[in-house]
Design a protein that fits this description.
Porin; 60s Ribosomal Protein L30, Chain: A
């Protein structure tokens, strides 16, 4: 009698949970299934029996559900046992692909069973688990196929002690019972409260209002049209160029003060530095226009500002030389020539001259005041280097040629260049070099080495050239 009371309480609890789920949750669905079962208690003597089950499913979280189910099956084995078993359980169902047409799932849970065939039978705990899949037939209805196992930690699921059974359990193990199940059913969703909430509400019945006395609408205010903006005066990005000029002349972005993103405003590039506002590296030397103007003080329009044969980028980033000085180490040989010959442009000690007949090179670092030919003291280290080479090679004869920049007249520059060449010769002769080993000449401004349009270019063109004879 006590066992039947326990079973009745289980049914009442499951029924109460199901009814409460139907009322409270929008994610409630129903299902019914038919199938077969086979005990796992008596080995090969087991028979296949019918299985029927119904359930109410409640959504807990997305893709996680709780099923409350009741069922009935017949478990039997030839010449061994036979039961008429009532089942009740609660299962957790994990279905990650619930929204797909084909939705596999797994389940596990706990419940109990009772054998109506034997009045003295116990209520036996059950732990169902298995797999299945739902195939959507139409909206709100799916075909469900599942297979699983019901494990019992008792030996009396079949109401027969283990020592009286013909075989052992395959899964549950010795002294424990269980049974397999395979079922096919229909699953119905979108029921309960969700359907109620989606049902259209009847419009409220309202009494016909008394129409108020109509009053004429106030006159519409006159709208003054907005003036058309003048692109020639507008400067949307505040860079100093009008929107009209940016669009029609320079092709820059009127809403972006620095179109090419190099750090210089479009106005500064166009009006001040004459660089390309659409190209962050106008001279293509590898340094941005901003870095050349603001950081290294090089010419953003000339890839080799000091004219030594190395690009500004190579001087700054590769060789660490001064891009504004053609002879960084003041050794008498320009940086480009040193690099080309495998020398260190930062070490003046390896700056020696090519003394083969016909060779020519600029003696970098000999400085004069503007329009004068007196040698400045800063030039002494370079001249001493040349003196050392000439003393070590007494057979060498040289032609010293002076050059000037473009400032001044042609005749004045020609005379100045010859005087500077003679000043270098006199310095060497005064220190022991035979006068017949040195000839001089001047070219004035006739043979510039680079542009005379910049201060840096003019400094490069004021130079002394040695030619080996």
């Amino acid at each position: 009698m006590m066992k039947k009371i326990q079973l009745l309480m289980l049914i009442m609890i499951l029924g109460s949970v199901a009814l409460n789920a139907l009322e409270m949750s929008p994610g409630v669905s129903l299902g019914a299934e038919l199938g077969i079962s086979r005990g796992d208690n008596a080995g090969s003597n087991e028979r296949i029996g019918p299985l029927v089950r119904g359930h109410v499913q409640l959504e807990i979280f997305p893709y996680l559900y709780m099923r409350n189910g009741l069922g009935y099956t017949i478990l039997s084995a030839r010449d061994d046992y036979s039961t008429s078993t009532f089942l009740g359980d609660v299962r957790l169902v994990l279905s990650p692909w619930e929204e797909k047409k084909v939705a596999p799932f797994i389940y596990a849970g706990a419940g109990a069973s009772y054998d109506f065939k034997h009045k003295d039978a116990d209520v036996i705990p059950l732990f169902p688990f298995g797999i299945g899949t739902k195939i959507k037939v139409k909206e709100g209805m799916a075909l469900e196929i599942s297979a699983g196992y019901n494990y019992s930690n008792s030996d009396m699921l079949d109401n027969t002690p283990h020592d009286q059974e013909a075989g052992n359990s395959l899964i549950a193990g010795e002294g424990k019972d269980g049974f397999f199940n395979l079922s096919l059913g229909l699953h119905f969703s979108d029921t309960g409260k969700k359907a109620k909430e989606e049902a259209p509400k009847a419009p409220p019945v309202m009494e016909k209002p008394v129409e108020p006395t109509k009053t004429p609408p106030p006159p519409k205010p006159e709208v003054t049209p907005r003036p058309t903006p003048d692109l020639k005066t507008m400067d949307s990005d505040g860079d100093g160029l009008s929107d009209y000029d940016e669009i029609h002349i320079y092709g820059t972005d009127p809403y972006k003060a620095d179109t090419d993103g190099d750090g210089l405003s479009d106005y500064a590039e166009v009006m001040k530095y004459k660089t390309d506002p659409l190209n962050p590296d106008t001279d293509g030397d590898g340094l941005t226009d901003y870095d050349e103007v603001m950081k290294y003080k090089t010419d953003p329009l000339n890839p080799d500002t000091d004219g030594d044969g190395l690009s500004d980028y190579d001087e700054v980033m590769v060789h660490k030389t001064d891009p504004l000085d053609p002879d960084t180490d003041k050794g008498g040989m320009n940086d480009g020539e040193e690099v080309a010959q495998g020398k260190d442009p930062l070490d003046p000690s390896d700056d020696f001259f090519d003394i083969t007949t016909g060779a020519s090179f600029d003696l970098e670092g000999i400085m004069f005041d503007t329009a004068k030919y007196e040698i400045l003291p800063v030039s002494v280290p370079v001249l001493e280097h040349a003196l050392k080479v000439l003393k070590e090679h007494p057979e060498v004869k040289v032609l010293i040629v002076g050059h000037t920049d473009s400032v001044g007249g042609v005749q004045d520059n020609l005379i100045l260049s010859r005087n500077r060449a003679n000043a270098v010769k006199n310095w060497l002769v005064d220190r022991g070099i035979a006068t017949d080993r040195i000839r001089t000449d001047g070219k004035g401004k006739a043979e510039p080495k680079t542009t005379n349009e910049t201060v840096e270019g003019r400094a490069i063109n004021r130079r002394i050239e040695f030619i080996i004879e």
